[in-house]
Design goal:
Blueprint lengths: L17 H14 L12 H8 L3 H13 L3 E4 L3 E4 L3 H4 L8 E2 L9 H16 L4 H5 L8 H17 L13 E4 L2 H12 L5 E5 L4 H9 L3 E5 L1 E2 L2 E2 L1 H11 L3 E4 L13 H14 L2 E5 L13 H4 L4 E6 L11 E4 L3 H15 L4 H13 L1 H23 L5 E2 L6 E5 L6 H9 L3 E2 L1 E2 L13 E5 L6 H16 L10
Parallel strand pairs: 3-15, 5-6, 5-9, 9-10, 10-11
Antiparallel strand pairs: 1-2, 4-12, 7-8, 11-12, 13-14, 14-17, 16-17
Pfam family, one: GntR
GO molecular function, one term: DNA-binding transcription factor activity
Protein name: GntR family transcriptional regulator
Length: 471
């Protein structure tokens, strides 16, 4: 805040004594990031004049805020937001942020415009009756063509020729990646079979595996994700024939395989005769995406690409590219028994957006906002304290030695933040990582995210050990 600016609390929607309303507004602005630690507030007289109220009311408000630990004063310099304010303030409903759900930051202005236009065009279509009716379990011809076009963009963005991407007869539409993964594991494995996966994996996958009675064997990873030699060793020791992995913006660590790693892993997959489920949830968001494993070992890799992470969860649409048309038919049979069909409205709107370029516009806006939010995290969190990619939706925060993940999550909850402890991502019985995942997309705007990250930074810098207060 510049010296000639005057902070003016929003008081129109606050009842009760005016001095408490001012203190509450100050706390809310700290929680939302509109006021940050170290920021100087206007003098009491200046604020009173700006609000047109009595000086004593502002004096009482500042005293109340100081009592709450929101303010600190330096003789001769003024009144400032305290360093501990963001971390120590009581959680406020308007300042609560759920950083546990890995959703894309929604470009609401664009979405409103394109949703209105898309739905208007959908309902005015001359074949509306057909579009609203039942269809094949793997989607109609137009929807599968759109899915193939979406995957083609993924291939060409990685520098591959367009004609190397899967044809529509290999691409099916599922009502979201979770439904696609459930159908795939049902098709590719039987109860008690072994499935290999990264040591830390998407909880939705491990939940499906448990429900189907599959045994997940964790494979060692490094900064690039799966280690090919470790995958080969796990194949030999467990007899596994199926692998699940996320090569790009891995959830939760954000590890992303280099081209060399992808080539080495693909060669190992072919040598071992593995079948692979490639969860490419975030591939469309990467500014420089790596080659899909499905392009390197097409006869053995099932490619799953959801729109929930790169466009909006509201579409509940994912595309699955099978190794060949015959296996696509088998997969469609499983989809038919489990989900009947994708939503005609959601799948139809997604197809329209892909074919008219709207999907590409939205994905680019989300990619740019994700990059902006990662830059904000880099400014506010301690250097070297986390792993992330420049345009990933989340980051993996390493905790100091005397913090346990659950204690940190519980302390964060007291400041209005919902985080996910590292053990939620364990794929098997391995040591719990001293880390938490922070999803950056759920905050409604950059100011709210800034406030949340300031609270996280305050927790990292403050007293540690996770005392619960239980005696």
């Amino acid at each position: 805040m510049a010296d000639d600016d005057v902070w003016k609390p929003r008081l129109s929607d606050r009842g009760g004594p005016l001095y408490l309303a001012i203190a509450d507004a100050m706390a809310a602005d700290i929680g939302a990031g509109r006021l940050v630690p170290g920021e100087r507030l206007p003098t009491q007289r200046a604020l009173a004049e700006a609000l047109g109220i009595d000086l004593t009311t502002v004096t009482r408000a500042y005293a109340e805020a100081r009592h709450r630990g929101l303010l600190s004063g330096v003789v001769g310099r003024g009144t400032f937001i305290s360093d501990r304010a963001a971390a120590d303030m009581a959680p406020l409903a308007q300042g609560d942020i759920d950083m546990s759900m890995n959703v894309p930051p929604q470009p609401l202005a664009l979405l409103r415009t394109h949703l209105a236009q898309g739905l208007e065009r959908f309902v005015r279509a001359p074949d509306l009756g057909r579009r609203l009716g039942y269809r094949a379990a793997g989607g109609g011809a137009t929807e599968r063509t759109a899915g193939a076009a979406w995957l083609r963009r993924r291939y060409t963005a990685a520098g591959l020729a367009a004609n190397t991407s899967p044809h529509a007869d290999r691409v099916l539409v599922a009502p979201g990646a979770q439904a696609a993964l459930h159908a795939l594991l049902s098709l590719l494995a039987q109860r008690a079979d072994v499935v290999l996966a990264e040591t830390l994996s998407y909880p939705g996958f491990t939940a499906i595996a448990a429900r189907l009675g599959l045994r997940v064997v964790a494979v060692d990873c490094d900064g690039e994700g799966l280690v090919p030699d470790a995958v080969a060793a796990a194949c030999r020791s467990s007899g596994a024939r199926l692998l699940y992995c996320t090569p790009t913006h891995h959830n939760p660590t954000t590890a992303t395989m280099s081209e060399g790693r992808r080539q080495a892993l693909a060669a190992m997959i072919q040598a071992q005769g593995l079948t692979v489920v490639e969860d490419d949830a975030y591939g469309a968001l990467a500014a420089t995406p790596g080659t899909p494993l499905a392009a390197l070992a097409p006869a053995q890799v099932w490619h799953v690409a959801t729109l929930s992470k790169c466009l909006t969860p509201a579409l509940r649409t994912a595309y699955v590219a099978a190794p060949d048309a015959i296996q696509a038919e088998r997969f469609e049979g499983v989809l038919r028994t489990q989900t009947q069909m994708p939503s005609p409205l959601a799948a139809g709107l997604a197809a329209d957006w892909i074919l008219d370029g709207t999907a590409a516009t939205l994905a680019e806006a989300i990619r740019a906002e994700a990059a902006t939010r990662q830059r904000l995290a880099a400014e506010l969190l301690p250097p070297g304290s986390y792993q992330a990619q420049p345009d990933s939706l989340h980051l993996w925060l390493n905790l100091p030695p005397d913090w346990t993940p659950h204690a940190f999550v519980q302390r964060a909850a007291r400041t209005g933040l919902t985080l996910v402890a590292g053990d939620a991502f364990l794929s098997s019985d391995t040591p719990v990582p001293a880390a938490v995942r922070l999803a950056l997309g759920a905050a409604p705007d950059a100011a709210s995210l800034k406030g949340a990250l300031i609270r996280v930074a305050g927790l990292l810098a403050g007293p540690r050990g996770g005392a619960t207060g239980v005696i």
